[in-house]
Write the structure tokens for this entry.
Amino acid sequence: MRTNTTSPFSFLQSLATRFQPPAWVVDEGQQKLVLFLNHVLMQEKEAQNRLLRKKGSVVHVRWGVFALDLLITPAGLLDRAAPGAKPDLLLAVAAESPSVVVQSVLAGKPPPVKIEGDVQLAAELGWLADNLRWDVEEDLSRLIGDVPAHTLAGFARQAMAGLRQFLAQAPAASASGAVTVPPVPEPPKASS
């Protein structure tokens, strides 16, 4: 039995630990992420109401070398917190391996997260994670029309279902990220 001890995402892991993007790239990426999160939040009034209860709170989100401090605004939306702001809640993705995170998300489960701090704020964010969804099809329909958006979304759903099915049938990854490869059967010996 052969065992492949490297993750298919090991290249990305090593690249992420060695490569630090320029500060302006990090800044722009974080700003775009905040804009996207607010776009999704604005589609659900209950989500804004829940965040409004915790206005002024700061959430520190971390995954490996990537970190973001978010401030809950008086509008029930998000903004980047001021540098050095004391976080009320720490959310750290416990899995360093991108493959573990991707497999969790594709399986419809949240990735393992370490939570420290304000329990009520954590509960509100948990509700958001369970109930808030981005309506991609609605946003696409504004750009390309209803029928093409519905067709494209249908193709995307089929592709995701196929990917989930493939991952469910693929060899399971161990906790260390190693993938077990089944042994290759030996060819039958010719009889003399």
